[in-house]
Amino acid sequence: MTITCPLFKQFMNFSKLDNALILALKRVNDPSKPCFVVFIHTESVLDSAAIALLESLGVSGITDGKKVYTATLSPNAISQLSEQPWIHSLKLSRELGFVSED
Predict the structure, then answer these.
(1) N or C terminus: which one in the chain shows less Cβ crowding within 10 Å?
(2) What angle do CA 46, 81, 69 make, to 5 degrees?
(3) Which helix (H) or strand (E) holds 9?
(4) Domains contained in the chain, CATH given
(5) What's the rounded Cα separation, in Å, for the pair 91 and 81?
(6) With b meaning 16 or more CB within 10 Å and e meaning fewer, what string describes 49-66?
């Protein structure tokens, strides 16, 4: 499901985003500011254009066979990635709490 997101003035494929990321995007004031740590789920083999796009967004360690990457992305970058056919999903990283051993 690709729809225009008025805040970002571009298309975003919400079917590739998890619910937590969708809700977080609704609270954004500056769509160009990298503020979301996101898990990027891709195909296992990426072409040179896909690798170049990921690297331009600050993703490192791109290797054949690897399917999940992490990056701090802006809403605009999330929108751009959501439209790529080689992206399976984008998921917001959640802060983990400490487990008490009481």
Answers:
(1) C
(2) 55
(3) none
(4) 2-92 (3.30.70)
(5) 12
(6) ebeebbeebebeeeeeee
What would the two tokens of residue 20 be? 């937590």
Using one digit for the tens of pLDDT, what is the confidence trace for 64-101? 889 999 999 999 999 999 999 999 999 999 866 666 66
**Residue 35 · residue 74 · CB < 8 Å:** yes
Structure tokens at 8: 């970002």
Tell me the pLDDT tens digit for each residue of 2-42. Answer: 444 555 556 789 999 999 999 999 888 888 999 999 999 99
* Number of residues that make up the chain: 102
Whole-number Cα distances in Å, 18 to 14, 38, 42, 100? 8, 10, 15, 29
| CA nearest to 37, candidates 26, 46, 24 | 24
| Phi-psi group of 65: left, alpha or beta (phi > 0 → left; psi -120 to 50 → alpha; rest → beta) | left
